[in-house]
Automatic annotation (TrEMBL):
Domain HNH nuclease: 185-237
GO molecular function list: endonuclease activity
Protein name per its UniProtKB record: HNH endonuclease signature motif containing protein
Domain of life according to the entry: Bacteria
Keywords noted in UniProt: Endonuclease, Hydrolase, Nuclease
Domain ScoMcrA-like SRA: 4-139
Organism encoding this protein: Luteibacter sahnii
Amino acid sequence: MFEVGAEYNRRRDIHAVFGGQQQGGISTPSRHPFIFLFTGEAGEKHGYHDEWAEDGFHMYGEGQVGPMTYTGGNRALRDHLQKGYRVFLFQATGKSMPCVYRGEFAVARHYVKADVPDTEGDLRPAIIFVLARVAGDQATALQRAVQDIDLLGISLNDTSRLAVAELRTKQTLFRDRLELIEKRCRVTGISDGRFLRASHIKPWSACTSGDERVDGSNGLLLSYHADHLFDRGWITFLPDGTMLTSPLMPTPILERLHLTSTDPRPVRFTQRQAGYLKYHYDHIFLKEPDDRTVK
């Protein structure tokens, strides 16, 4: 029904077709065996902090005030496998903006976390569901991850096959985490994930730890030509979101690519993102003629 990475209007494309509650993070249509989940920044004001971990997507249950209980949408999500309901995850990109489809999932486990603030700031127990991709969408995610890594020259013996499998898994986790932070290409404004690449700010080879390699703050979602320009140092970004183009960029190329930001008020990067961007500016961005390197 939905394509991973594509954008959908929540009311028109989902609720008008299948029904279900039009607000909140868990929607349970009465006439279809589906559950629609919606994650995004809006939940943070209610104490929800959905996040990706190595074992799956940790998503808070519903309930803005007081202890969360296994009723309503929480109960439906907990019991969806026994009931035969399919679960589809969408990510909000902003108020009145489309939702991006992230895939079909199943609840692997659920647990209760103590002392989570509710909307009023009172501490309460919160239900957290750990979601794992179903087989078909897991394959889609891995195929998409392969587009973001270079496998040329690898001899696929048993050892290297394991290494490639681990690399794909880590790259998938990196993109999943990145998509919770960055919502669109900062050059073109494209937010449809099918046309975006997950680009490391500090390159994979330069990362000093595995945590840096899968840190969503160490990345940008860029359209394919913008990814190439960023990777080669022709463009970079300042902490306030302003894009810089290299003084070495040939003028005819600059004019033909129309390299101007689509957002007159760019979104500032977080402090963590700014740290990675400093590395990019210092070590990758082409500032002087002798900065040019073969990559």
